[in-house]
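Researcher: Good morning. I'm working through a list of sequences from a screen, and I'd like to move beyond sequence-only analysis. For each chain I'm collecting a predicted structure so we can compare shapes side by side. This is the next one on the list. No need for commentary yet; just the structure.
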Amino acid sequence: MLFNIGDKVVYPMHGAGVIEAIEEKEILGERKKYYIMKIPIGDMKVMIPLDNVEQIGIREVIDEEGVEQVFAILKGNHSKMSSNWNRRYRANLEKLKSGDIFQVAEVVRNLTFREKEKGLSTGERKMLDSARQILISELVLAQDASKEDVDKVIDHFFAEIS
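Model: Good morning. Structure tokens for this chain:
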């Protein structure tokens, strides 16, 4: 799938951004074309080789229907997670790596519930923070909203959990 300058796309494990340019660069003696993607959150730029787009799993940002689905997942009941820390961590990591926003939303929801019930280890706290950043970056672009507004909406979903 080819993208154009200005397209809003998602880079699994990094978040959503906008393709600012398509450039040819020579790296380690090899000339390749790259998408130059700007991720607004954290003000990061990423170079994505055009010939790896499929493997990496780059996809378009979700539409309004997708946003509603994400909100439904965040509002939903948390799914059963392994009590084994290692297994739980690996399962959540797989979901994040998938690049699927709905799986990322599940990780955010499940770890937020766990945090409020039992607390999280340092590793899982980092994972929650990173999953939340990935989720927010896509929702910001999908809704043309500010990071602060999206943050508030997500916090609101979890406000009732004691």
